[in-house]
C-alpha cells in the first residue's frame, strides 16, 4: 500500500526525463478531470516506462509533510482555489529545494510480536514521521530514528536475502563492509558474498541447528537485520527472523533499496552531527 511507503523530496533515483513525464501526465489528467484543489497521483516506473496507477481528486496524509519540506502551505492554497482564485493569482513558481526530506511510515508491529511485518495491499502503518537534513543519507537516518527504529553506527549486520535479491545485495554488503560492520550471512548469501570478495561469517538458520540466527539476536550479537522474504513458495518459513528482530528490538530491513539507504544514512551520520534545526531555517533557504 502506498501509505506504507517511504519517500524522499527532492527525488534521488528518478531520471529527469521521467520527472518531466510525470509532470506532463499530472497536468493533463488534472485538466481533463477538471480538478480544483489538490490531486493525489500514484505512478510506477518499470523498464523505462512511466505508468499511471491512480488519480485521486483529494489530498493525501502526506500533504502536510510535503508542505513542510517545500515551504508551501498546500492546504491553504487548495482552499483558495476552491473558493474561486486562479493558480496564476497565487504567484507560484518552480524553486530548488536545497535540503532533503524523508517521509517514513510508522508501524505497530512492536505491539504484535507474533505478526510477520511484511507489507502488502492492505495499509498497516499508523502514522508518519519526517527527517530533514542537508543530505539524503542523513535525512533517512533521522527519519529512522523518529520511528523508534534507530540505525546502529557500528556492530554486526545480519544479511539473508531471497534468491531474487542476490544480485543487488552484493553492493549493499560491500557498503556495510566498508563501514567496518561485521557481516553474518546464511549459507547462500555467505557463498555469494565470498565469491565477490566480501568477508562474512556463516550463521545457521533455525532449522539447520544451533547456535542460529534467533540465538544471535536474543544474545544481542546482531545490531541490524537485513532480510528480504523468501516468499510463500519457499520450503522453509523465514518469518521467525523478522519476528525475533521485533521481539528483541533490533532494527530490521526487508528490501535491498532500504538497505542501501540505511548504509548511506549511517555513513552520513558518521560524517556529521544530526543537528537540530528549525523548520523555518530550512524553508528560508529555498530560492
From TrEMBL:
<keyword id="KW-0547">Nucleotide-binding</keyword>
<feature type="domain" description="MGS-like">
    <location>
        <begin position="149"/>
        <end position="287"/>
    </location>
</feature>
<comment type="pathway">
    <text>Amino-acid biosynthesis; L-arginine biosynthesis; carbamoyl phosphate from bicarbonate: step 1/1.</text>
</comment>
<keyword id="KW-0436">Ligase</keyword>
<dbReference type="Pfam" id="PF02142">
    <property type="entry name" value="MGS"/>
</dbReference>
<keyword id="KW-0028">Amino-acid biosynthesis</keyword>
<dbReference type="InterPro" id="IPR033937">
    <property type="entry name" value="MGS_CPS_CarB"/>
</dbReference>
<keyword id="KW-0067">ATP-binding</keyword>
<dbReference type="InterPro" id="IPR011607">
    <property type="entry name" value="MGS-like_dom"/>
</dbReference>
<feature type="domain" description="ATP-grasp">
    <location>
        <begin position="11"/>
        <end position="83"/>
    </location>
</feature>
<dbReference type="GO" id="GO:0005524">
    <property type="term" value="F:ATP binding"/>
</dbReference>
<dbReference type="GO" id="GO:0004088">
    <property type="term" value="F:carbamoyl-phosphate synthase (glutamine-hydrolyzing) activity"/>
</dbReference>
<dbReference type="InterPro" id="IPR011761">
    <property type="entry name" value="ATP-grasp"/>
</dbReference>
<dbReference type="InterPro" id="IPR036914">
    <property type="entry name" value="MGS-like_dom_sf"/>
</dbReference>
<dbReference type="GO" id="GO:0005737">
    <property type="term" value="C:cytoplasm"/>
</dbReference>
<keyword id="KW-0479">Metal-binding</keyword>
<dbReference type="Pfam" id="PF02786">
    <property type="entry name" value="CPSase_L_D2"/>
</dbReference>
<keyword id="KW-0677">Repeat</keyword>
<dbReference type="GO" id="GO:0046872">
    <property type="term" value="F:metal ion binding"/>
</dbReference>
<dbReference type="InterPro" id="IPR005479">
    <property type="entry name" value="CPAse_ATP-bd"/>
</dbReference>
<keyword id="KW-0055">Arginine biosynthesis</keyword>
<protein>
    <recommendedName>
        <fullName>carbamoyl-phosphate synthase (glutamine-hydrolyzing)</fullName>
        <ecNumber>6.3.5.5</ecNumber>
    </recommendedName>
</protein>
<dbReference type="GO" id="GO:0006526">
    <property type="term" value="P:L-arginine biosynthetic process"/>
</dbReference>
<dbReference type="GO" id="GO:0006541">
    <property type="term" value="P:glutamine metabolic process"/>
</dbReference>
<keyword id="KW-0464">Manganese</keyword>
<comment type="similarity">
    <text>Belongs to the CarB family.</text>
</comment>
Amino acid at each position: 500500500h502506498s501509505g506504507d511507503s517511504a519517500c524522499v523530496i527532492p527525488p534521488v533515483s528518478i531520471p529527469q526525463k521521467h520527472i518531466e513525464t510525470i509532470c506532463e501526465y499530472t497536468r493533463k489528467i488534472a485538466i481533463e478531470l477538471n480538478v480544483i484543489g489538490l490531486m493525489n497521483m500514484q505512478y510506477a516506473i518499470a523498464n523505462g516506462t512511466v505508468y499511471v496507477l491512480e488519480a485521486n481528486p483529494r489530498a493525501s496524509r502526506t500533504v502536510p509533510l510535503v508542505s513542510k519540506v517545500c515551504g508551501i502551505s498546500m492546504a491553504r492554497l487548495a482552499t483558495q482555489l476552491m473558493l474561486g482564485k486562479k493558480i496564476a493569482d497565487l504567484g507560484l513558481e518552480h524553486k530548488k529545494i536545497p535540503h532533503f526530506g524523508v517521509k517514513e511510515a510508522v508501524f505497530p508491529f512492536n505491539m504484535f510480536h507474533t505478526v510477520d511485518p511484511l507489507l502488502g495491499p492492505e495499509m498497516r502503518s499508523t502514522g508518519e514521521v519526517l527527517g530533514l537534513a542537508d543530505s539524503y543519507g542523513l535525512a533517512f537516518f533521522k527519519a529512522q530514528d523518529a520511528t523508534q527504529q534507530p540505525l546502529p553506527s557500528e556492530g554486526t549486520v545480519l544479511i539473508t536475502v531471497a534468491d531474487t535479491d542476490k544480485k543487488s545485495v552484493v553492493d549493499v554488503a560491500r557498503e556495510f563492509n566498508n563501514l567496518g560492520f561485521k557481516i553474518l550471512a546464511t549459507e547462500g548469501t555467505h557463498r555469494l558474498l565470498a565469491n565477490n570478495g566480501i568477508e562474512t561469517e556463516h550463521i545457521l538458520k533455525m532449522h539447520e541447528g544451533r547456535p542460529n540466527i534467533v540465538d544471535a539476536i536474543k544474545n544481542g550479537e546482531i545490531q541490524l537485520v537485513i532480510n528480504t522474504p523468501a516468499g510463500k513458495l519457499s520450503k522453509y518459513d523465514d518469518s521467525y527472523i523478522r519476528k525475533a528482530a521485533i521481539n528483541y528490538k533490533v532494527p530490521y530491513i526487508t528490501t535491498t533499496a532500504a538497505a542501501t539507504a540505511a548504509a548511506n544514512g549511517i555513513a552520513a551520520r558518521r560524517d556529521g552531527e544530526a543537528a537540530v534545526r528549525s523548520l523555518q531555517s530550512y524553508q528560508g533557504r529555498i530560492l
